[in-house]
User: Fold these one by one.
Assistant:
Number 1:
Amino acid sequence: MTDATSTSTSTSTSASPVGAAHPSPVAGAIRRANTERAGALVGYLPVGFPSLDESIDAAVALVENGVDVLELGLPYSDPVMDGPVIQRATVAALQSGFRLTDAFTAVERIRARVDAPVLLMTYWNPVLQYGVDRFADDLVSAGGAGLITPDLTVDSGADWLATSDRTGLDRVFLAAPTSTDARLRLAIEHSRGFVYTVSTMGITGARSDLDAAARTLVGRLRAQGADSLAVGIGVSTADQIAEILGYADGAIVGSALVKALADGGVDAVGRLAAQLAVGTGR
Amino acid sequence: MTDIIPPQTASLRAESGPFFGEFGGRFMPESLIAALDELDEAYQLAKLDPEFHRELAELGRTYTGRPSILTEVPRFGRHAGGARIILKREDLNHTGSHKINNVLGQALLAKRIGKHRLIAETGAGQHGVATATAAALFGMECVVYMGEVDTERQALNVARMRLLGAEVIPVTSGTRTLKDALNEAFRDWVANVESTHYLLGTVAGPHPFPVMVRDFVKVIGEEARQQVIDLTGALPDAVTACVGGGSNAIGIFHAFLDDTSVGLYGYEAAGLGVDTLEHAATITKGRPGVLHGSRSYMLQDADGQTLDSHSISAGLDYPGVGPEHAWLASIGRANYRPVTDADAMAAFRLLCTTEGIIPAIESAHALAGTLELGRELGPDATILVSLSGRGDKDVETAGRYFDVLDEQGNAIV
């Protein structure tokens, strides 16, 4: 369906750039999970919720219970992609005094305890205000793997592309059901780690029926040459994860984990992670 | 007519985005990029289509009441150092403010691209009322997001929107004001982009909104420029407007951008004062950042978290500002100054009692700035003021402020 454009996919660098100076730790973890099991589980939690210490313990519990890649959200005042569960958690984190530098502290302390790669999920203005280069350098020092940028697309992200190339940090861009093939290629060619495949048109939050749009979009991304894809938004059960890993390389769970942490604390979120990991064939 | 010759150099009016200097752009989730591209393409086509312009002009003439008139206010002007003050009466438009100009343009565009559902954010409620009005006129579904705080202080406009058939959703997230209403509208749009047009109400947001909204409101200045020349035989010395997101200000400034003799003055809400934390003076006190999809000045802390704004006027209570204003400030073409709640309310009262016109509290900020500017420029100066809205919606707020109404809204006699 995309003969006219297939040549450009040869430049894909999504998972393991050929001869790249910076092998992607995230793509490596996803590849490993796909070799050993059905695929990778990516788990999201916000930094600083319910407290900095507990958010670190909760992230460690995710990895100890089968999460392959951590996605740590930076609380932000205007999170347009987030649904009510994550909003409530990030508002609480901001109200209890979250500062940007807490994110680096969290990454460093998590990395000291578990080996999974840690991505930060952040809206763009905090990075811009901290300084894109300074942010990247501090993330590297903390042992972080890279950034997921929900409101920064490739075509608006020249400074981040340059900085991530300099530092070797992973950069995860989003692909949506409404994206054109040309835009899917842009996301594939510039993502490192994986392409965040938005399962459905909407914001974060658990959904009982995952959109068929996810499967279709993964097919379109594959046709454009993507070799490391994780599906997120609305994923909350082991069955959904197993289904997703039938066609994608990773499944991303956010709101369901945040809700478990809010309702039952670190133990509960660890237990949920273990249940979800069953969907990966663990 | 006039013999004023337009300048031959590069026109400041030609800027058409996505960037205005270093400001503007498109910082948005990938899920919305296709809709923004679709909107941009539809708008570019409509712009070249004489039928679109004819339809819009016809709506302006027969529905909005365009052209809006000019009113000279000499009794008010005496308090402005004797300067000649001329009001551009956008308050006389159908629905009571300049907002209807943008709304009709975007609703017409939404119809062209086959969207049958309009969503909007609103602060004071003027944009929400205008959107609900257009939805009724075009037979479209309408949902308006309004911060819970604003639904309380603008209850009358909530009722108007409901009477017009719109659903008003009070926004309880974040600070429960205008910025959170925008967030909620974007969230709705992400989920419903196939059926829905997000009818953004100001010259902010991601490209193409700042440019498109400006083009729909610039009729204000285009009319006023000619009307002032017809009335006085010359260009005004200054043009003034209040600035929240900045749509009425860009609407009246734009026609004058290349008239270098004309000073442009935007008045931001200083709330309780720019040295307090309770203000919305974005250009005066903010610094560049990304909010709601574009890079502009904004109120934020060291970490880039958006700060709460404050103004007695819900329509100016916004911690961001349109990128074209940020650019006009950065190149020195327009001046942006703060006006406190107290000064705005004094000017509000003064226009009521000297001229028999009750302005919106938003517009009263421009009037307060004009009083000061008139004293600066002297009695020979002519100042054109954007009277962007009428004060009917503010009677309760003003009534309490001036002890005409008690806390329950009953008359004090």
Note: Residues 1-20 of chain A have pLDDT under 50 and may be disordered.
Number 2:
Amino acid sequence: MGVDAVLEALNTSAVRTVALGAAALGATAGAVGAFAVLRRQSLQGDVVSHAALPGLAVAFLLGGRDPAWLVLGGAVSGWLALVLVGAVNRRSRVPLDAALGGALAVFFGLGLALMTYAQRHVPDASRHPLDRYLFGQAAFLRDADLRVIGGLGLAALALVGLFWKEFKLLSFDPDYAATVGYPVRLLDLLLTTLTVAAVAVGLKAVGVVLMTALLVAPAAAARQWSDRLGRVVLLSGLFGAVAGAGGTVAGHLAGAGVPTGPTIVLAATAAVAVSLLFGPARGLAWGWLRSRRDVVHG
Amino acid sequence: MSYTAEIALVLAVVAAACALPGTFLVLRRVALVSDAIGHVLLFGVVVTYFAVRDVESPWLLAGAAASGVLTVALVELLGRTRLVKQDAAVGLVFPALFAGGVVLASLYLRNTHLDVDAVLLGQPELATEARWHLGGVGLKPVWLMAGVLAVNLVLLVVFYKEMKLTTFDPGLASALGFRPGLVHYALMTAVAVTAVAAFDAVGPVLVVGFFVVPAAAAFLLTDRLAVMLGLAALIGVVGAVGGTFAAVRLDANTAGSVAAVLGVLFALAFAAAPGRGLVAQAVRRWRQKRAFHETMLAVHLYQHEGTDAEADEAGCRTVHRHLGWTEGQTAAVVGRAERHGLVRRDRDTLKLTHAGRDRARDVLGGSVDSAARPPSPPPS
């Protein structure tokens, strides 16, 4: 599979549309995910994306067929899961990690039950297979999906720009932010909501199971190249976009049965591997080279 | 045994087997490891399949379990480079391996029972059919699960003391010569093997729920480790049976329904756990509020006892103005304080009893006596 095959694939307008959508959602997830990773909340996205499933199913059972309604349903239940995790963490002695894991499994289980119920009892369910949302099939992105991705993505990025200073302070020194009078809980909620929105735009192309990786991987890769927040967020968005587009094309070339969510995640993981090895300041490859040189000369 | 009962039994065995190591995952705050391990099993199965080329080989199970333990090691290795934080390391490793497993499975294993959706959803129905063949005897996955449950029970009984000590006081454990690191990896191995046994029935995503949710609910109900282990297993079994029958009634995915019912059981414990649940918290706050009002009344009367203003400050009809309460609320508080023997009515004035005066002194601090009274009550 050479360069020609990639170019040929990009020449079909369907693939181009799909790759564009995947790039847009990758950019959104990357930029928003950078904050989640910096705040050590990488696994929040995991919970949100799994917990989106029951909301999707409920929206579908209530008659929603428009992607915007399904995404809204998913976002609401993902958000609800995080709120419940917060309540359990504050009001009981169950540790945070157990609350996260439990919420993930319970919501996902409920979603699976509702999804199978819908498939067996809703007459037109076979024309709108919900199980595509599990692993994602970017090939089925339609113009309506692209509008949802574009709209939500732009809104999320605009909010990041608008609250740049606040989010920066919240990420690096939340105590100071609270001391100087920023509404920390509100900002925290806003950032959480942005995470939910970033997950929601990726549901159809990447799927609920693996969407978390698109929040974490580009950010972890970008972090290896810079210590400045602005560059990390920009690079993270860029890596996300490249992984989205590249993974979609790779999935297309691999054949019809391969879902695109995993190929996008593998593309993002490749970016992480390269960054961990060759990041300018802390790259593992440089460390190995140095130790070899020391052995030779010392 | 009816078909439904058989599936309920399978899931009950899985739930009990998961709940035992799950209890330690919750107590040691490493619950999400079971999430990572569950996801990676598929990768282990697929890679082992390429080596043995037989979907019915028991080696697939060994490969899956090994991949689970390797994931834990990989996450710790990545965390140790200090290039990514621990939570990000988890979030990088298992989606990557899971994605690799899904891609490989969808490329090369399309016609086997390893197909992606089935793997994700879990199929307890398959667990009652013979899968592996050893010396002419068909082995059913449910026997494997029962075997794992038995092994977990034996390990628990044999290593109970070690597990307890390394969980609650790792520092003391290593000082006494136990090896917390060794125990950690032993637990991870048990989790991986248990997850492998559970994999067919519940799939890679829900398995974290079987490990974590019953244990978390049990954690709210008791302070004793042995009781918590028993309760976790019991809650798991109740959830498995309830979820199976709910799934049949609704004609929905079985493993998913069990996870949802486990969630309901946790919610019940969260709301109603004796002494710790939301209801108990609310009752405690309500009682504290009532006791606080009575104490406030006692302190107020104590501040003005024997002063010129006592008739007004402690007057039955005027006291509410000084306390900033409504008349109705004041009447209720005074009534309770009378019943509890803190105050009594002397014509139109409220007087403290001995007990009431003691209560006020307690609150104001032991050193306050009638001579060294603070000059004025704090503004309300």
Note: Chain B has a mean pLDDT of 85.
Number 3:
Amino acid sequence: MSDRTDHGSMHRADFVTGLVLLAFSVAVVVLSLQMSRLEHRGINPLSAPGVVPGLLGGVIGLFSLILLGRAIRNRGYRLGIRSDSAAAFVRSPAASRITVTVAWCLIYAWGLVGRIDYTAATFIFVLGFVLIFELGFPDERPSSVRRRVVVALIEAVLVAGLVSAVFRYLFLVSLP
Amino acid sequence: MLLQGIQLFVQEFVGFLHPRILFDVIWATQLGMIVGMLPGLTATMGVALMTTLTFHLPATNAVLILMCMYIGAIYGGGRTAILLNIPGTPANAATAVDGHPLARAGRAGEAIGIGTTGSFLGSMIGMLLLATFTPVIGRFALRFQSFEFFWLAIFGVVISGNLTAPKDPLKGWIAGFLGLFVAMIGMEGIHAHVRFSFGYRPLSGGIDLIPAMVGAFGFSEIVSMMKHVKVEVIETKIARVIPRLKTIWGFRRTITRSGVVGTFVGAIPGVGEDIAAWVNYDLAMRSSKKPEEFGKGSLEGLIASETGNNAAVAGAMIPVLSLAIPGSAPAAVLLAAMFIHGVRPGPLIMVENPAFVSSVVAMVMLGTFAMLILGLSMVKQIVKVLLVPRSKLMPIVFTLCVIGAFAINSRTFDIGVMVVFCLLGFAMRDMDYPVAPMVLGIILGDILDTNLRRALVISRGDLTPFLTRPISFVLFLIVVLSLVSRTWWFVAARKALAAQIVALLRKLRDAVFSKPNNG
């Protein structure tokens, strides 16, 4: 049963992906056709910059049509989300662990790095990551909250300090 | 020619026998083993991250460190497969099938010893084949023109798509062609025209492979590691690790076959060590005198997969050096690293820089010996790495992903590229699209683009040379067969044809044997 449900959700995902890829390929072909053929530079039209991207767009379009056709044959166009399976997924600990990991990593890479000092950003990220998972999703290791916080602080200071120092002074990189 | 090759190899090998270089070999191989051991962190990610940490070193030292890291990681994953039943890298999935039952039976030390010896011998066989075939293929490839390189690029993504998505090759091909498209972004190589940048200046430089790769491979690995709370390390005594020579000698045929097959599978563009391990495991089971032991703790199955995956490491370097086309995902990073350091592999390497090929062979040898020594010593101590909680390890890995993506070009834009590919890689993995063909596509995109347009200009728009030149025609046939052989109607037609042939043979047999009776 679950296998059938998995197949069903994959066909639905294939249907949506097929549509997205089809739209993407049409856009690529149109943009390739509109691309400058550099006539003013007198180049051979067969070496125009749009030739290969246009061809690739066409091939991706063809593949997306096959994917779409297959998904339609398997009734992947029935996009209704079953509320019980969706709720079960949202409630599962794995889903919340994934969501928190993705969100915190994105906040660091897009929100913190480049906006505040790199060392401070890294310190906040490492400390936050360790604390979220050590306190929010506790495992069975016998250690107190205070100890976990202290260890997280030490790790954050060491990682932020060492990574910044190695890249700045050893690799001579101007940090973001 | 052979003597010249051996002379070059000895020269390069002796050149590496410097305490500092040997120290690099030891730590890089050990770090590779640790990266490989940690479930979720793969050889590709290890080599990609290490590329960002070694870009300031001279080319030879950097490539040596990356090569040792690669060899160590593919080997190290086997230990996790044996002890945890979780392959440390995808290349060790076949190892877990027999390695873990052996560990459960209290034979973990023996399994680690056999796996290490298999990896060592596989790597040595791969090294010999690398030294033999790279110059041969390189010289043959000197006959290649734009027409052949075009088909080679298409063949790379198609075969990689076929083999990395065996259940649904269409998704593998889509990933490969998307990768080829990604390579179209930015300034093109013939007229220096900027494509698909939409006026955004950082995009005109194109999408760099390393940030894209760190994102696509690294982040999805971090997420999949954080999905579960913890892993169980089985409580087992690790007794004698060094295997008996008699045991190894008993597997000589399996080892030789796995080494040779592993190298050739590794040399197929974009296929990699995981397929090499499975192919060898399957071959070992079919030819074994005790096939019933496979899956229950067969030493033969374990040694076949471990020999195969490490042989594939050297195999993957054959097309990298001779054609500038990677045999596996980590080899793709190594190729990119070579470009970063100004080394240009490809058909001309045997003319321009033959010493580099010998140098890579010497690197494989050094890495292989380091792997053997480290693999058979400090077994109990290194296993403790597996006890480090993921919540403490993963933020360090992601921090290195971010700064690594930034450091090569010092562009904040590359962090953005990494993040976009993080999300793309995560979504692709979730929907069963393999990432390896996409990465291969990013590398092959430029080869495809420049060679197709050059070929069209040479032939003045005539498409027939793509099919009438002998090598082109063979490559075209292979591409078409790779595509068509996976369609349902081809499979059905093949089955129907086979059934008809069998029926015809039966009729013939009946006719032949019934004649004398009638007469």
Note: Chain A touches chain B through 67 residues (CB under 8 Å).
